[in-house]
C-alpha cells in the first residue's frame, strides 16, 4: 500500500506554497493521500490569527477539488497543547503496518530539535523534508547526525518500510509565507494568486486578518 503523507501546519492561512509542495510530493513520492493536519494550539506560537474552525475551513476550501488531498482536524478537536509526536502515535495505532510520511518544509525541519520528544518521531513515521527557498540541509549537529543515520535518496524505502527514513526532496520554490500574507492583507493589499481563490474569498468575507491590524505578527 502506498504511503500516507501527513502535512501539519498552522495554515494561518493555507497558501500556494503549501499546496504546490503537497502536490509535488504526492505525485513524485506516489503517496496514497496527503492529509492536512491544522494545528490546535501549537506549542511554538503565542497566538494565532484566524480561529481554528476558520483555518480548517480554509484548508477544506483550498483542497476541495484535489483528489488525494484530505483534511484531518484531530489536532484542532484536541483540547490543550497538541504535539506532533502524540498525533503520530495515534495515527500509528490506527495504521499499524502502513508507511506514514511526515512532510516538512526545511525551516520546520531545522526547528525539529525543539519539538517535544522529537527523537521518537522517526520510530513512528518517515520524515520527508521539502527544500524551501533560502534554507539548506544541515550537515552538523543532531540533525546532521540524523541525516547520516536515517537519510535515504530512494523513494522506494518510503514504500517498503513503515517508518524510520529521512528523505530530502527539492520542490518548486514558491517564496510565500503565512506571516507575510497576513502582513500584506493588513496593509490592505490583495492576496490574489498567493492563495487559492476560495481561500481569498473566505479571507475577504470574514476579514479574519484585517481585524488584526496593529497587532505584532
Ligand atoms: P508562518 O509564516 O506563519 O510561519 P508558514 O507559511 O511557514 O507560516 P506553516 O503553516 O507554519 O506556514 O507551515 C506548515 C508547513 O509548511 C511547514 O512544514 C513549513 O515548513 C511548510 N511551508 C510553509 N511555507 C512553505 C513554502 N512556501 N514552500 C514549501 N513549504 C512551506
Structure commentary:
39% of the residues lie in helices and 14% in strands. The protein has 217 residues and is α/β, with parallel strands linked by helices. It has one domain (4-175): HUPs (Rossmann fold, 3-Layer(aba) Sandwich). Strand 2, helix 2 and strand 3 form a beta-alpha-beta unit. Helix 2 packs antiparallel against helix 10. The longest helix is centred in the first third of the chain and has 13 residues, at 16-28. The protein is globular, with a radius of gyration of 17 Å. 39% of the residues are buried. It binds adenosine-5'-triphosphate. The site of adenosine-5'-triphosphate (ATP) has 18 residues, from helix 1, strand 4, helix 5 and helix 9.
Task: Summarize the model shown.
With 217 residues, the protein is α/β, with parallel strands linked by helices. The protein has helices spanning 16-28, 52-63, 74-77, 84-94, 106-110, 121-124, 141-150, 155-160, 178-186, 197-206, and strands at residues 4-9, 33-38, 69-71, 100-105, 126-130, 166-169. A six-stranded parallel β-sheet has the order 3-2-1-4-5-6.
CATH architecture: 3-Layer(aba) Sandwich
What class do helices, strands and sheet pairing give? Answer: alpha/beta
- The main sheet orders its strands as 3-2-1-4-5-6
Taking pLDDT < 50 over at least 5 consecutive residues as the criterion, the unreliable ranges are: 213-217
Percent of residues in beta strands? Answer: 5-15%
How many runs of DSSP E, i.e. beta strands?
A: 6
Counting H and I runs of at least 4 residues, what is the number of helices? 10
How many independent structural domains?
A: 1
What does the overall shape look like?
Answer: globular
Mean pLDDT: 92
Radius of gyration: 17 Å
Q: What's the CATH class label?
A: Alpha Beta
The largest β sheet comes out as:
6 strands, parallel
What is the CA-CA span between the terminal residues?
42 Å
What multimeric state do the chains show?
single chain
At the fourth level of CATH, the homologous superfamily is HUPs
CATH topology: Rossmann fold
Amino acid at each position: 500500500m502506498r504511503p500516507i503523507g501527513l502535512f501539519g501546519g498552522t495554515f494561518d492561512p493555507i497558501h500556494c506554497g503549501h499546496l504546490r509542495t503537497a502536490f509535488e510530493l504526492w505525485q513524485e513520492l506516489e503517496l496514497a493521500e496527503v492529509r492536512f493536519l491544522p494545528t490546535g494550539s501549537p506549542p511554538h506560537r503565542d497566538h494565532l490569527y484566524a480561529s481554528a474552525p476558520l483555518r480548517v475551513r480554509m484548508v477544506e476550501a483550498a483542497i476541495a477539488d484535489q483528489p488525494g488531498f484530505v483534511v484531518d482536524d484531530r489536532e484542532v478537536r484536541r483540547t490543550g497543547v497538541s504535539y506532533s509526536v502524540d498525533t503520530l502515535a495515534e495515527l500509528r495505532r490506527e495504521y499499524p503496518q502502513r508507511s506514514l510520511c511526515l512532510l516538512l518544509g526545511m525551516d520546520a525541519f531545522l526547528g525539529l530539535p525543539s519539538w517535544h520528544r522529537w527523537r521518537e518521531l522517526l520510530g513512528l513515521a518517515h520524515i520527508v523534508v521539502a527544500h524551501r527557498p533560502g534554507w539548506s540541509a544541515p550537515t552538523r549537529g543532531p540533525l546532521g547526525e540524523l541525516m547520516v543515520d536515517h537519510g535515504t535518496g530512494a523513494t522506494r524505502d518510503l514504500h517498503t518500510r513503515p517508518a524510520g527514513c529521512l528523505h530530502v526532496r527539492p520542490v518548486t520554490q514558491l517564496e510565500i509565507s503565512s506571516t507575510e500574507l497576513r502582513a500584506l492583507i493588513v496593509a490592505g493589499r490583495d492576496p490574489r494568486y498567493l492563495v487559492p481563490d476560495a481561500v481569498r474569498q473566505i479571507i475577504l468575507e470574514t476579514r479574519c486578518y484585517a481585524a488584526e491590524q496593529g497587532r505584532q505578527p
